Amino acid sequence: MIDDNPLKHLLSLELSTGKKTFLLEKKFYSVGRSSSNSIIINHRVTSRHHSLIIKATYHRKKENKADTAFWILDGDWQGQKSRNGLFINTEKIDLHKLVPGDIIIFGGIEIRAKYDIVDIRSKELFSVLDKKHITEIPLSTEVNDINHFDQISSNNDYQELKYLGEENNYCNNTIAELIEGIILIDSHHLQIVDCNLSLIKLLGYDTKEEILDLNLEQLFPLDIEILKDDIYLLNNQYSDVSRDSVIKTKENKILSVELKVRFTEKLGQKIICLSVLDLTQQRKLEELLRYQIYHNPVTNLPNYKLFKEHFFSLLANYSALDDGFISLILVKINEWQEIGYNYNYEVSELILKTIGKRFKQLISSKDIVYHWRDDQFAFLLAQNTSDYSEKIKYQILQVAEESFSVNEEQIKVSLSIGEASYPEDGSYDEILLQKADRTLTENYYEYVKEKC
Questions:
Q1: Boundaries of each FHA domain copy (predicted)?
Q2: CA distance 134 to 153
């Protein structure tokens, strides 16, 4: 379906190395250091899974139109909070409905973002944040204020269903059974009054009565405030609300679900109907696809796309430190073309896998090695010392000293290296990349000359 709504939702992420603007269109976005996130922020003050941005879609009662809002949640769907907190306009929050102009701080002031709405017809931003809030934000985060330990605390709209055709069989209609669960709620007291068999099975309960004894907070512990807001809006101008959510099972497990909230009738009384669709397998597939997007399929090392994300945010991290030092090392397999001509792809893949494995053994947990292209690898070293960089370069060259045994044949390769260092060679990712690539090319040409 073509989105002809002229109002677009934006998240502008500001780092010391520049700004990135994301167009918010998906049903939810995960934010944090982990490469599995939708928005990756590789910074010392951010957690692996720092926050979630959740889209809620509100369909109007008498118009074929929909409105959109975004909520932001501290931590992940499992209830694990971020280490250093989530702040909106300097106030620490657990859950917040975003308003145009909101300033979001992901753990430390170095990582801030602004939420806004733009009318693409007039190019007008809907910012409403009072400027005095911005002046209250400090310029940097003190190192002593950073908490380095995670805290634990207690991600298609549905097709329209016509399952409530008759009052007396609203939970038994065959179309209703196509979705995972139905919860019916008294609209006055917000108590659960009924559910279907699919919901009982989904949550692992034995009887309907067990669920009827629960309250909404027990089923929706993380986003109950969003649900209450959904119901409030339904009472006014909207026919239904749809968004991603999570629901708790009998065994206290958290399931990712798609939730649709609407009004219906039972025995002549107006009640709230929650339709719940299990997204667990879909989430696993999405995580697998995201992993494949960011990793090389042969070596399983992070690829160029993830390198760019990491490099950008890593520079932002270290630019705030006086003693920050980052080394970018590019490595090229000199004999790659000959290997391709003389051997099949299985041999080529075996050599790549072996090199990747050897490279990973050289670095510490603070460093990352990437499989950039077929014949190129990249290292990001963040150990705050040039001596460490020299040591790793020596060890990289030593990797090629050991031949590769393939089908009882010993294959020898050599490597060319290019390097650039922050801040000595520049402060921006593109400048450092150009320097490293230039020195790599020069060293490779030296290899070609010697071979000729």
A1: 29-93
A2: 30
The residue whose two tokens read 């650039």 is 420
User: What domains appear along the chain, each with residue ranges and CATH number?
Assistant: 7-141 (2.60.200.20), 170-282 (3.30.450.20), 296-451 (3.30.70.270)
pLDDT for 162: 30
Condensed to tens digits (0 to 9), the pLDDT of residues 266-296 reads 767 889 999 999 998 888 888 888 888 899 9
Q: What is the pLDDT of residues 170-190, one digit of tens each?
A: 433 434 444 579 999 998 889
Burial of 112 from C-beta contacts in 10 A (0-12 / 13-18 / 19+): middle
Render the burial of 385-423: b for 16+ CB within 10 Å, e for the rest: eeebbeebbeebeebbeeebebeeeebebebbbbbbbbe
Secondary structure element (H or E) that encloses residue 290, with its range? helix 280-294
What pLDDT score was predicted for residue 172?
38
The string of DSSP codes covering 165-188 is SSGGGTTT-TTGGGSSEEEEEETT
**Are the CB atoms for 244 and 286 separated by under 8 Å?**
no
The amino acid at residue 175 is I
Question: Taking the mean position of all CA atoms in its chain, how far away is CA 58?
Answer: 24
